[in-house]
Design brief:
about 270 residues; alpha+beta; BirA Bifunctional Protein, domain 2; Herpes Virus-1; three-stranded mixed β-sheet; three-stranded antiparallel β-sheet; 9 helices; 12 strands; globular
Length: about 270
């Protein structure tokens, strides 16, 4: 990975964020070639899925939304990660990820008390060999305030773009007269308070999403799912990914998100 980062920096694709002041972990700036590459990908995606299709329209939602949106979606209550800290180096880690890495055990859904019990009973240490703090919850959303004085309304930088699509669903229907099946697309920034920085541009505090929410009759979901999987793979090839380098990873049923009937992750070499 270090070789890739070095190459991208030398060629002007990506630079470490605010590097002359020591940088900020998990942030990156796109240079002359990187910003143009990013624009080309976004332009291709928008033309392919919005401008050239009759069943999809676009929106550009606000990054800041009424906090009730995130309360209703469950993000305020549940969008948290278990955090542990190295008592010596003060490095922070996702408790569940660290335990799984050290033991090979799947600890998804475990409570803070259960995670703490595993750390204690198994005598788990940090990657540097030091003792760990007890796990605690860390919100995955960045908070700020709206207003001129302390104590004004708490608002959040959105952790995903989907909510702007959902809250504007009726507005889109009223203004476009779309009928099922149809989609709403958006490209925009999202922000997540990641505990463990790393993986270059693949895991960052600030990132950009290109998202389509496609609405349909329930009985049509399997047919349309397969159609969309083929469509997305075809677009990947269109922008230059080799077919033999694209892989479909079928997510196991016991690993699906609570809202998902089926999920395919596209991976590329």
């Amino acid at each position: 990975m270090n070789k890739i980062v070095s190459l991208c920096k030398r060629r002007g694709f990506v630079f470490p964020g605010s590097e002359i002041y020591g940088g900020l972990a998990n942030t990156w700036d796109y240079g002359p070639l990187g910003s143009q590459l990013k624009k080309n990908i976004k332009d291709s995606w928008w033309k392919t899925f919005v401008e050239r299709r009759q069943d999809i329209v676009g929106i550009d939602g606000s990054i800041l939304m009424n906090p009730k949106v995130w309360e209703a979606s469950g993000h305020v209550e549940t969008f948290n990660d278990p955090l542990v800290e190295d008592k010596v180096t003060h490095k922070r880690y996702r408790a569940d990820h660290l335990i799984q890495e050290l033991t090979g055990k799947n600890v998804d859904g475990k409570s803070l008390e259960e995670l703490a019990g595993m750390i204690q009973s198994l005598g788990l240490k940090s990657p540097d060999g030091n003792p760990l703090t007890a796990p605690r919850q860390l919100s995955g959303m960045f908070e700020t305030t709206a207003g001129a004085a302390d104590g004004d309304q708490v608002i959040y930088l959105r952790p995903e773009t989907a909510q702007a699509i959902f809250v504007n669903f009726k507005n889109v229907l009223d203004t476009t007269r779309m009928r099922l099946p149809f989609g709403i697309a958006q490209i925009g920034k999202a922000f997540r308070n990641e505990i463990t920085p790393g993986n270059f541009t693949f895991r960052t505090l600030e990132f950009e999403q290109m998202e389509i929410e496609y609405f349909l009759e329930e009985q049509d979901w399997e047919r349309l799912f397969d159609s969309w999987a083929d469509t997305m793979e075809a677009w990947g090839k269109k922008i230059g990914l080799r077919g033999d380098k694209i892989h479909r990873l079928e997510v196991a049923k016991d690993a699906l998100a609570h809202y998902s009937k089926r999920t395919i992750d596209f991976e590329f070499d």
